[in-house]
Write a structure and sequence with these properties.
mainly beta; 2 domains; about 10% helix; about 40% strand
Length: about 180
């Protein structure tokens, strides 16, 4: 009996068309229905199909670098530095003097991770309207992470006069109770 009910249901679906979760109907005549696909930010789908990034333009940056800081609790912040006085006390800033800051600025990102095995790198800066969104690339050799917490300071040289709201597109989410 169950077999007949399944066959009847399948026949009804074929004759009337199938409806997807987002409401797009696939007719039984072989036509292709238009469906709404959730937006993806960037990268590739399985099979190598490229995904375009959302609106905006890439902001060029130069001489990106990083240094591992002493772990002093979870930290995640962005600094847009336009003068020697604004440079953080941590790190070595040789070569970044007042002459440099006349035309250039430093974009500094500090991010804490749950494992020292994960390496960070500034991947891109995407500008849309008055917001600049920074993406960080995370890589790890092998399949096993260490349990030591790590705080990284990443920086890049950018033009001076960039008046944006700076955001971190893919900030690390730490367990509840960790303070930034």
């Amino acid at each position: 009996m169950k077999k007949y009910i399944c066959m009847i249901l399948a026949l009804m679906l074929v004759l009337t068309g199938c409806q997807s979760a987002n409401g797009a109907t696939t007719p039984s005549t072989g036509e292709i229905a238009q469906a709404t696909i959730p937006a993806l930010t960037e990268g590739t789908l399985d099979g190598g199909i490229a995904i375009e990034r959302p609106e905006g333009v890439d902001l060029p940056f130069e001489n990106a670098g990083k240094v591992r800081l002493n772990y002093e609790g979870s930290r995640s912040y962005i600094l847009y530095v336009t003068s020697v006085e604004e440079l953080p006390k941590e790190g070595s800033w040789t070569g970044y003097d007042e002459a440099y800051f006349q035309t250039k600025a430093l974009l500094i990102v500090v991010e804490t991770l749950g494992s020292g095995s994960v390496q960070l790198e500034l991947e891109s800066i995407r500008v849309h309207e008055n917001t600049a969104s920074i993406s960080i690339k995370r890589t790890m050799e092998g399949d096993v992470a260490t349990t030591d917490m790590a705080t990284w300071m990443l920086w890049a040289e950018v033009d001076k006069g960039l008046d944006y709201e700076w955001t971190l597109a893919n900030a690390t989410e730490l367990p509840a109770g960790e303070l930034y």
